[in-house]
């Protein structure tokens, strides 16, 4: 019984008590813990969100047949002509591109009073920068003509455009219409501006901006330190809400744009819809195209031409006033498209010839007034333009005569340097000629015998060291002994030029397909003042060496064949130097 009572106790405990957690050996079967708080199902949009769109076709079917199709809500199955649909697509892409630019480059509000409700923000971007973005977004061409059509719709008030009156006289020149400096409508703003193109040139284009609507007291003036009594001004703060409202109202502006397009269709009689089963023919297609005319082009602000002439920019040539003292006011000259006066227009004479003959002398007061007007016109645009032209001509003349002419032979005709390559060749030739004198002296020393040989072979005439030397070997020696560092090619070209200019001093010969340099014997061994050098050395003169009358002769007689004295007096070096200086024009 004891054993049965021991076994009954755990059975009752299992039936009454809640199940205990399993032991460590059965931990793999444990259920995942319950999250706290419990997980909620993934939120889904309410089903009523799509009921509105499901009920819209039924509401459209309730429209009576007597109502016009233009009264149907916007975007509810209205078919626009192709050119108007393209314009609507461009407007949508333009608005998106401008909003994206403002999001990446937030503008700074200009200073304004707290009671201001509308401020212009011009030139946030320009037509050149926004054009590529609009074309990529809409897959349509976006040029100046498309921008003009968009601007026309933005500024249109919905009334039929006025027809231009046709003048009966075709030769009557009609007055030019005044082109505004800014175009604004539906929150957009177009003004002239200038920027840099892809090549880095300054060009003029149309700036794109917005007109921002503000609430009274929405913006505040931010001072340094954030206090109202601080010094300095950091601009207007609190305008991000207004910018957000402008970007958020893009759909409202698009609806207004579509209403204007529908109004344009209504003014021109509406669109004739074809039957669905009827295939389009060339006749029906042409009739449908001619039903609705395209949107007119609105003249945008005038852009000055991108030239360096002052007259072609924002400045204009001002005519002299009648009060300047002259009898008749000066008429402005006719200006061409390039900014220069038209040379084929005959200007009338300022004063008639009869009045000049009747009054040969002028009043001193009128002459003083004329001189004052001339002095006042010195700073005019026309005077500055003429002065600039004269400076350009003088600069061109000075550039042509910048290099001094080289001294040539009498039969050689000097020709002006025509291009840059010839100028570089002349400079290279002059640099070679400038170092040719030192190279000639080195070549003479190379071919002359040494002083030791002349003293050992006393009583004999000095003999040359070698009859001929390789051109490459001589060039290497010239490179090593040159005062200024030169290359081996420059040394060879200098030796070749020396042979061409002075064949009496140095010649070149081809032996075994190699160039050799040879110096004539008359150049190397000129006649000496005394035939016997040993006799001069053994029998010195009785006159003391300090005598000024015989010092020059003693120095010349005692000088060896390789001394500097003989280099400057003998061996044809004088003729070589004269030839080189003649080529240099000295």
Architecture overview:
- By secondary structure, the chain is of the alpha+beta class.
- Mean pLDDT is 69; it is low at 50-77, 307-362, 407-417, 454-465, 526-562 and 564-570.
- The strands form three sheets. A four-stranded antiparallel sheet has the order 1-4-3-2. Strands 7-9-8 form a three-stranded antiparallel sheet. Strands 5-6 form a two-stranded antiparallel sheet.
- It has 21 helices and nine strands.
- α13 (436-447) packs antiparallel against α21 (573-584).
- A hairpin with a 5-residue loop joins β3 and β4.
- Among the domains are: 69-160 and 179-271 and 283-291, no CATH class; 430-540 and 547-584, Arc Repressor Mutant, subunit A (Orthogonal Bundle), CATH 1.10.10.1420.
Main traits of this protein?
586 residues; Cdt1_C; 21 helices; single chain; four-stranded antiparallel sheet; 41% helix; alpha+beta; 9 strands; Arc Repressor Mutant, subunit A
Summarize this entry quickly.
With 586 residues, this protein is α+β, with helices and mostly antiparallel strands. It has helices spanning 2-16, 51-61, 82-104, 127-138, 144-155, 240-248, 250-267, 282-291, 353-358, 364-376, 381-400, 420-434, 436-447, 451-456, 471-481, 488-501, 521-524, 533-538, 551-558, 564-569, 573-584, and strands at residues 118-126, 183-185, 188-196, 202-213, 220-221, 236-237, 468-470, 507-511, 514-518.
